Amino acid sequence: MTTAIVQKKSYDSLIFGVSGGLTVAYILFAFLAPQANEAIVNAVFQYLTMSWGWAYLWVDFIVLLACFFLIFHRFGDIKLCLPGEKPEFKDITWFGMLFSGAIAAGIVFWGPAEPPSHMSVVPPLFADAGVQPNTTRAAIVGTAQSFFHTGVNAWCVYAMLATAMCLGSYVKGLPMRFSSAFYVIFGDRVKGNLGRVLDIFAVLATLGGMATTTGLIALQLGSGLQYYYGFELGQYGNYIVIGVMTAIFTFCVYTGLQKGIKLMADVRMGIFIFISLFIILVGPTVYIFDLTTAATGQMLQNFVAMCLYPEPGAESKWAAGWTVFYWAWWMAWAPFVSQFIARISKARSVRSLMLFGMLVPAIISDLWYGVAGGAGIFYQVGDVMKDHGAQSAIFALAKAMPLSNLTAFLMVLMVAIFFLTVANAASMSLSMFVSGHEDPARWLRTFWALALGFSAMVLTGTGQLSVIQTASIAGAVPMVPLLFLLVIGVFRAMNRIYAERYGPAAIAETSPEASPA
């Protein structure tokens, strides 16, 4: 009896009630009034990106500077644990987990699509400098812009938030929750209703970020079935794709098939590496290496300008649909990804987490953009995208490659497995945010799996990329001020911890002279 009561109450009623209620209310509204939903979402997209895009850029830049400062400062020596504790994972295992975490569903979607897009519509920073569309120079700067969007600017957000989570959980002994990261700012108040408000936001932000990813993957799968295989799914094609995939990952989440999900994650990584190597070896090898090298140089040369260019005075607001969207997408994913990085980084030094937590994932992401995007430019997938959208790029690339049938099949399989593994992990994280337990109740996991699927369904049903993008942009709004405060809080906490562990008093306590004879 007691056990049943404990399990029944093994979640926070306020966090679940508010976040779950808002989610269900939005899904019902979107289903009952799709046109009104589309109009509201588009208005939100326009307002946030065109009026507040500069804020996303500035906060991300400040976080990036703070991360690099910690790499070279003495605070980098601080271990994210209690004194004497050791890392849970060996170095090579930890690197491998960071590598796996870097292979995200979003880069599979945009990898072959983004560089060709920037080649035909040159980013304003470079267009203002005289770069003409569809030229060799446009290919270089377009790939450089793609590297920038998935580079250290994305992963610095995760590294900073993960560091704060480690300080709250491993140093102060709080649960591994989003709110624990903000102990460095609010102290013990995160244990009360303020912490619950933060965790409610984490649920909604994660749901928005995952709904964007789910929508993009659904568009990609639907496009692959139609463009490459000729399967016409009709008006409700996106609903069918998301419905089938939601049913599968909900079953996995409910039954707790973690071994199966782990196996799929390993298969996903294997296919990803195989496809990358296959493109390099049988595709335009020299062109890929030349373009990647030139684009890397362009990105490094123009890095600061790219960080702080919101396209002032322009009506088109190219930056709103690309850079601002990306920054918001990363921020919406931050509670989920940072929790993963924090959980595997116990007892790592701040320097190690900042250095490897930013650089390893950034290098992996940019290599994929160089390989898939470079091949996409070489095989002119941009022409296909004009008629079939960005979601068709990966299958247009497969069609241009040798052994195209095998390549296309592997790409469909990779995209599907990405969807399943990421959706499963996100559903588990959403349940953990609500319950505070590493093994949440089945009904809770099932609820968030279905909520994720239906949220993506009502967004993707519009067929508009901007509507799908708005989910992450709107979900990330509170992260803008929170990240700024977090930087201040992390530095204050590290100043105190460093003094306690490495200051004169600590040295005096551990010196031989201080020991009894």
Keywords:
517 residues; mainly alpha; 24 helices; globular
Task: Indicate the topology.
Layout: H1 2-8, H2 13-32, H3 34-72, H4 91-102, H5 105-110, H6 114-120, H7 124-127, H8 136-149, H9 152-171, H10 183-186, H11 193-228, H12 237-255, H13 258-282, H14 285-301, H15 303-307, H16 318-343, H17 350-378, H18 381-388, H19 393-400, H20 404-435, H21 442-460, H22 465-475, H23 479-502, H24 504-510
Helix pairs in contact: 2-3, 2-11, 2-21, 3-9, 3-16, 3-17, 3-22, 3-23, 4-17, 6-8, 6-17, 8-14, 8-17, 9-16, 9-17, 9-23, 11-12, 11-16, 11-19, 11-20, 11-21, 11-22, 12-20, 12-21, 13-20, 14-17, 16-22, 18-19, 19-20, 20-21, 23-24
Characterization of the model:
The model is unreliable at 1-8 (pLDDT under 50). The chain has 24 helices and no strands. It has 517 residues and is mostly helical. The longest helix has 39 residues, at 34-72.
Distance between the termini: 58 Å
Portion in beta strands: under 5%
Element order, helices and strands?
A: HHHHHHHHHHHHHHHHHHHHHHHH
Low-confidence runs: 1-8
CA radius of gyration:
23 Å
The mean pLDDT is 82
Describe the biggest sheet? none
Envelope shape: globular
- Based on helices, strands and strand pairing, what is the structural class? mainly alpha
How many strands in all? 0
Helix content: over 70%
Total number of helical segments? 24
